[in-house]
Task: inverse folding
C-alpha cells in the first residue's frame, strides 16, 4: 500500500494553484468588467475585432499560446526587452509570468459571460437611471452589476476553475519549478511520469471534486437567481 | 483599492530559494530515478536539488528563453550539444549519465516472446511507439523495425504517441496490445514489473545516449558542480542501473 498522505511538494502546489487562481481572477475582473461592458455596448467594427481576439485562447492549443508567450516575454522578445528595461526583469519562470499567461488564457471565460449579461440589461433601465440623475459609474455599480449577477457568478467560477485546471500554458511559461511555478495540474503530470499513480489519482481526484463542486454550486445559484422576476433583471 | 494592490503585491512577492539549491531540468523519462538520486544527493552533500521535469524539446525552448536552470539532464545527446554551441552551456561540461534501452512490452504476461517474434504475427492488430520525429525512443523503434524488415508491413498498424510516456500509457491502459517503451518504464530493481517484454538488442538501433550539461546560470554554483559530479557516483549509477538504463563506462 503506497503512502497516500500529501507531501510538502503537493501542499506547495495546492497553495500555489489557489494563489494563482485568486490573483488571476482579481486581474481578470479588473480587465474584464470594463472590456465586457464596452463590447456589450459598442457598435464599432473594432468591437468585433476585440471580441475575436479575446476568444482566440478558446481555439488555440495551450502549448502554442505558451510557446508564443515564452518567446514574446523571453530575453529576445519585444515584451521581455521592455520588462527588462523597466527593471521588472523577465517574466517567464516566475509567478507573475504565470499570472500574465493565465489571465490571457482565461480571459474569454470571464469576458463572454459578462458581455452576455451586460447585453441583456435593457437600454430603458439605463435611461431611467439617467433621468434619476445617476452618473454612468453610479449606474454601472448600482444598476448594471446587480442586474448582471448570474453573469458575474458564471464569470467568477469559470475564470477561477479554468485557471485551476490549466496545464499546457503554465508548463511552457512556468517551467515546472517546485514551489515557484509548479501548480497542481503539473504536480499530477510529475506523479504520472514518476509512476506514482496512486498519488496522481489522489491529486487528480481532489481537482476533479473541487471543480465539480464549483460548477454544481454555479448551477444552483443560477437557478435561484433565475426565479427572481424577469423585470428586475432587466429582461425584455 | 490600495488595500487590493497591497494584497496583490504581497501575493506576488512570496517565493523563496535557498542559497545552496540547484535547479535541475530533467527529461521526463528520467523522472523516477532522478527523484531517488536527488534524495541521496541531499543526504550526501547537504545541497538540495530542485527538479523541474519536461520533455527535452520543451526544456530546450525554455532554456533558450532564459529559464533559470543550472543543469540539464536531457533525453538525448544533441540538445546539450546545441546548447553548448549557442553559448548557453558551460563548454566541456557535457557528459553521458545514462544510456536508454528499448523494450517491446505488453501487460499480458503471455503476449510478447523473448525474441520479439510477435512483431511478425499478423494477429498483432496494433503496435504503439513514440513518434520517431519527436522522441529518441521512437526513432530507435523505427530503426529496430527497419532492421527487422518489418517497417513497411507494420506501418498501417502503428499508433504514434507524442512521447515515450504516452506510448507506455497506450499499452498499459489496454488500448494497444503491445508497444515500444523504455525499459526504465517497466523495470524496477532489475526485474520486470508486469506483463511480458522483449529487450531490444542495442545493435538494432542507434544508441539512446542521455547527456547532461552544466548551464550558464549554474556556472559558478558549487551545488550545481556537486550535482554533476554526483551523477557519476556509485550511488547514482546503481539507481540508474536499477531503473533499466545502462550506465556509461
Result:
Amino acid at each position: 500500500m503506497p503512502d497516500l498522505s500529501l507531501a510538502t511538494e503537493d501542499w506547495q502546489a495546492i497553495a500555489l494553484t489557489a494563489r494563482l487562481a485568486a490573483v488571476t481572477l482579481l486581474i481578470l475582473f479588473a480587465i474584464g468588467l470594463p472590456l465586457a461592458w464596452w463590447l456589450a455596448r459598442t457598435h464599432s467594427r473594432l468591437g468585433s475585432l476585440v471580441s475575436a481576439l479575446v476568444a482566440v485562447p478558446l481555439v488555440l492549443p495551450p502549448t502554442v499560446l505558451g510557446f508564443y508567450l515564452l518567446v514574446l516575454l523571453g530575453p529576445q522578445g519585444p515584451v521581455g526587452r521592455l520588462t527588462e528595461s523597466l527593471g521588472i526583469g523577465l517574466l517567464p519562470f516566475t509567478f507573475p509570468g504565470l499570472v500574465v499567461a493565465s489571465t490571457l488564457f482565461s480571459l474569454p471565460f470571464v469576458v463572454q459571460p459578462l458581455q452576455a449579461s451586460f447585453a441583456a440589461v435593457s437600454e430603458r433601465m439605463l435611461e431611467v437611471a439617467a433621468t434619476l440623475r445617476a452618473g454612468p459609474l453610479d449606474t454601472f455599480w448600482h444598476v448594471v452589476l446587480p442586474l448582471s449577477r448570474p453573469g458575474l457568478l458564471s464569470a467568477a467560477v469559470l475564470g477561477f476553475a479554468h485557471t485551476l485546471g490549466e496545464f499546457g500554458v503554465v508548463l511552457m511559461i512556468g517551467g515546472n519549478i517546485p514551489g515557484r511555478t509548479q501548480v497542481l495540474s503539473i504536480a499530477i503530470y510529475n506523479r504520472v511520469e514518476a509512476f506514482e499513480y496512486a498519488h496522481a489519482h489522489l491529486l487528480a481526484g481532489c481537482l476533479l471534486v473541487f471543480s465539480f463542486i464549483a460548477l454544481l454550486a454555479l448551477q444552483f445559484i443560477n437557478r435561484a437567481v433565475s426565479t427572481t422576476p424577469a423585470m428586475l433583471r432587466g429582461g425584455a | 483599492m490600495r488595500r487590493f494592490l497591497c494584497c496583490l503585491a504581497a501575493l506576488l512577492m512570496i517565493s523563496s530559494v535557498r542559497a545552496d539549491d540547484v535547479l535541475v531540468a530533467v527529461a521526463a523519462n528520467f523522472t523516477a530515478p532522478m527523484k531517488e538520486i536527488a534524495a541521496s544527493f541531499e543526504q550526501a552533500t547537504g545541497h538540495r536539488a530542485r527538479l523541474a521535469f519536461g520533455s527535452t524539446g520543451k526544456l530546450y525552448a525554455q532554456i533558450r528563453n532564459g529559464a533559470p536552470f543550472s543543469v540539464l539532464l536531457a533525453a538525448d545527446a544533441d540538445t546539450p550539444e546545441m546548447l553548448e554551441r549557442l553559448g548557453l552551456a558551460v563548454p566541456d561540461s557535457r557528459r553521458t549519465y545514462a544510456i536508454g534501452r528499448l523494450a517491446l512490452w505488453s501487460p499480458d504476461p503471455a503476449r510478447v516472446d523473448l525474441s520479439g517474434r510477435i512483431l511478425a504475427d499478423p494477429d498483432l492488430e496494433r503496435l504503439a511507439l513514440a513518434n520517431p520525429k519527436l522522441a529518441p525512443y521512437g526513432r530507435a523503434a523505427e530503426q529496430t523495425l527497419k532492421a527487422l524488415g518489418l517497417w513497411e508491413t507494420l506501418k498501417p498498424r502503428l499508433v504514434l504517441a507524442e512521447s515515450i510516456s504516452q506510448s507506455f500509457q497506450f499499452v498499459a491502459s489496454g488500448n494497444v496490445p503491445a508497444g515500444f517503451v523504455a525499459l526504465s518504464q517497466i523495470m524496477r530493481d532489475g526485474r520486470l514489473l508486469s506483463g511480458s517484454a522483449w529487450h531490444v538488442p542495442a545493435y538494432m538501433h542507434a544508441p539512446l545516449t542521455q547527456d547532461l550539461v552544466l548551464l550558464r546560470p549554474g556556472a559558478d554554483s558549487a551545488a550545481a558542480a556537486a550535482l554533476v559530479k554526483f551523477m557519476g557516483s556509485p550511488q547514482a549509477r546503481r539507481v540508474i542501473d536499477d531503473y533499466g538504463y545502462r550506465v556509461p563506462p
Remarks:
- Chain A touches chain B through 35 residues (CB under 8 Å).
